[in-house]
Each structure stands twice: as structure tokens, then as C-alpha cells.
Amino acid sequence: MSSQALPRNPAEQDSTICTLEDVQSEFFKDRALIVVSNRGPVTFHPVEGAEEVAEADEDELTYEYGQGGLVTALTGLCHYADVTWIATADTEEDLRWHHGTVPMNGDEIRIKFVEVEPTAYDRYYSMIANPLLWFLQHSMWDVPRAPVINQKTWRAWEDGYVEVNRGFAEAIAEVVREMDAPPLVMLQDYHLYLTAKFLREELSDEAEPTIMHFVHIPWPGPEYWRILPPAMRTAILEGLCSVDIIGLQTQQDKMNFLRTCRALLPQAEARFKRARVWYNNHATHVRYFPISIDVESLLEATESEKVAAERERLERVIGDNQLILRIERIEPSKNVVRGFQAFEEMLELHPMHRGKVKFLALLVPSRLGVDEYESYLEEIMAVVGRINANYGARDWEPIRIMIGHNYLRGVAAMQRYDVLLVNAIADGMNLVAKEGPMVNEKDGVLILSERTGAREQLESGALVISPCDIYATAEALHQALTMEEEERKSNAEHLRWLIEREDISGWLCRQLKTVIDLNL
Predict the structure, then answer these.
(1) Whole-number Å distance between alpha carbons of 338 and 351
(2) What 8-state DSSP symbol labels residue 265?
(3) Which one is predicted more confidently, 324 or 22?
(4) For 291-305, how does the pLDDT look when each residue is reduced to its tens digit (9 = 90+)?
(5) What are phi and psi of 167, to 5 degrees?
(6) Of residues 183, 192, 424, 409, the one with CA closest to residue 310
(7) What is the CATH number of domain 296-500?
(8) So what CATH class is 20-292+506-517?
(9) How far apart are CA 244 and CA 508, in angstroms?
(10) pLDDT per position as a tens digit, 171-190
(11) Which ranges in the chain are annotated with CATH 3.40.50.2000?
(12) With bands split at pLDDT 50, 70 and 90, how would you rate the model's confidence at 410?
């Protein structure tokens, strides 16, 4: 690892680094924007004391904004464009409200909720999107045993995933027909793989919009896609090859998508040099746009009194110990169990750290209604209990777990770490790996799995490990805890430079600039 070399960033192969101000006024002077995702940027709730939803009117509804850089970046375009966001309803109040405008960043955004029958949604989301597609794309299936694709799976596909994607297409088509300016449709993630083809069919005799689809999770090679039956995988590839631009997280994802089309989509012509798939007399341009964080908002959060209060509470937990930190959703791909096993091995190999290092894990519940996720939480608690029992003392608890969604507590913890462990088995990007170095005040060391999307951008400032190699991870933890101050500082400064120059606005800007450059 060396922080002196500043390698050319892979993202620059697709589009030069730019700022949003460079393109937005030009791009949106004669365009509208439609953003489409499974969940929307706002969620409606009844105001306190309101009557039953069935009797309430819109004045008795309130809403909360979604969190995260994606919502911030895309809704920030409201100042420059006519923006409509289409999503499934998350609450009964969402359904009642259905569509209209809400204030956003000093402007307004139109929200349209797609009404989905609950059983169809459960099949679409809990049986096909999660876990079937999500586990497949993270290469997480124990293939000799799972998945088992049976009659129930096929019914979930036909009467869930296909049905909901068709419903999204119909909702988008309605909005397109109402717009005065030609829109750019930005589809988000693995829930909507079939939507673009259905939308083309809906608008077959009308002017069609420019369609982009960004996939936030990894894209494996064709070998893994063969797990799916031919009819399913062909439908997915046909849907994605109906878009004008498909955006992926990394160069490897981009190459895997081209390889998958060449191997598994009959009559598709995949050109690697041009990064283009020609199918059904339509060109799909394949690009990679590594997603990033909202640096400005993150740094503002560190100045808040609430973060200071969280920091004070954490200091009482950490004491005088060095701090190893991880912040993850509770899901198998995050490799939480092996991270604790590596810490255990470090304590065995390097007893000097016993009583002097605290491993703090901030874990966020995720899809606990899915059996694989619930059982993984049980594994986590079991290994932590064993390590604390074997190595702990009356005045030293080796591992502390805090479960729950508390963003400000996470920001406070990231300010304080000596080592940030990100050892995912597979991850589209992993934004914690970018957030941590931006706010950390101790020149903390980043240990980064080679299977994360963030590795392509950040490996020159991190200790890179194989996620299954517990011994190497243990040695990396020891190396990070004992690293010389000068090297720590140099690497931390380098990571901040890499992240700050390509924040969430840059991610969005490169997509818009690609549309301009391709004259779409």
C-alpha cells in the first residue's frame, strides 16, 4: 500500500471528472426527469391525533424524507429540472396520498406512488428481488443446496416480479404522456430489470424517452447467471438491453455485463471496445459510474450537537482503548462473522492487544423477515458471545455490539476509530468505506475487502484483504493498530483526496454528461 502514487481513477475511462454545475443547465434546458425506484424519497404518515386513514384527508398527513446521498443528489436536481419520482407505496398513507408535489430543497418534486397488491409485492420483493436476485448477484448462494426454484418461485416471478415491473412501466408511461419536455427516465437497481422493455411496449407508437438504468449491486459473470432458468435470465437481459445506458458500479461489473450478454442472450452482439450491446435493433451503452457520498452534508453533520452527544456516549464505552469499528447492515454478504473471527485470531496471535483494543460493531437490521438474514444475526451473536467469554475480563469487554439504525451515532463512531474494517464478501460499492475516512479525526486505517466496489477507487490508501482469509485479516488488523503515525496520516490524507474529488454530485454528473456525449 502506498499513498504517494495517485493512479488514474477507473471512472475517468468513461467520463472525465466534472461538477454538476458544468452540465445541469445545459442538460435540463429542454428535458424533464423521471426517477424510478422501489422506495421513494418521502414516506407519508398520519399527523398525531388524525382519524383513521380511510377518513383522513391530505391535510391530516405528514411525511418524512428518505435518507442517503442518492436521495440528496437526485432531488437536488429539482432546482434545474421538472422532476417526478415514481415508487411503490410503503404505507397506507402513501396510497391515500397517491400523487402530488412536496417541497424539496427549496423547490418542489412530484411524487407518484404505484399501488401494488400486497401479495404481488411480497412475491416481487421477498421471493424474487430478495433473496433470489440479490443473493445471486452477490454470489452468495450455496449452489449444491440453494436456490430451489420450484412452482412457488415461478408463481412469484410471473404474478409478482413481472406484474410489478409491468405496473411500474404503465405508471411511467402515464407520466411521460403528461410531460411537455422529453424526459430522461432513470431506473434504479435490481427490482426493476423488466421495466424498460415493458415501457417501450407501452409507448411503441409514441415518442420514447431516453432510459438509463443504474445497478447498485455487483454484476457477476455469466457462470453465476446460469443459476437462473433461461426464461428468467433472458427476460432480465432483454429488459436491460431495452435501456439506452446501463450504469454499473465498477469496471469489473461492466465487463461482466458484456460477457453475460454475449454468453446468455441469443442474437445479442456485445462489443467490448465500444462497451455496447446491440440487440433487437437497439443499442445499449454499458458504462460504470462508481457511486459516492454527499461530502458536504456529511461534514455538516459532524458539527451538530447531536453528533457531539453521541460521541460523548461512545467515549464512555471505548475508554482508553484503541478502536476497531465496523458499521454494517445485518446481512450475510457483509461478512460480519468472519470479521469477528479475525479479531479473535489477532488476539490469539498478538496477545499485546488484549485489554487494549475495543471492537465496536454498529449493526443495522436488514430484511429480518427473510430466513437467511434472521439466522445470520443468530450466528453473529453466538460468535461474539464466545469471544467475549474466552478473552474478556472484568474491566475489558473485547466486542461491543449496538443494534439499530442511528446515523448520527455512526458519524460519531467514524470520527473516533483507529481502524475501520470493511471485509464484505461482495458489495456493490460500500459507502461506509468512503464516509469513514472523510470524517475520521485520528488518521484511522481502512481495511478493505478486495470484493467491494470501493476497492477500485480506494485500494491505494487502504490495506486490502481477501474476505475469506481470516488469518490475513487478523494480520491486517495488527498492522493497522501498530502502523507508524506518519504512514497513517499519509494514507488518510490520500483517501480523503480520492473521495472528495468524486462525491455524489460527480457520480450524477458523469451520468448526465454521458447522455450528452452519446447524443441521446
Answers:
(1) 19
(2) S
(3) 324
(4) 999 898 899 999 999
(5) -65, -40
(6) 409
(7) 3.40.50.2000
(8) alpha beta
(9) 16
(10) 999 999 999 889 999 999 99
(11) 20-292+506-517, 296-500
(12) very high
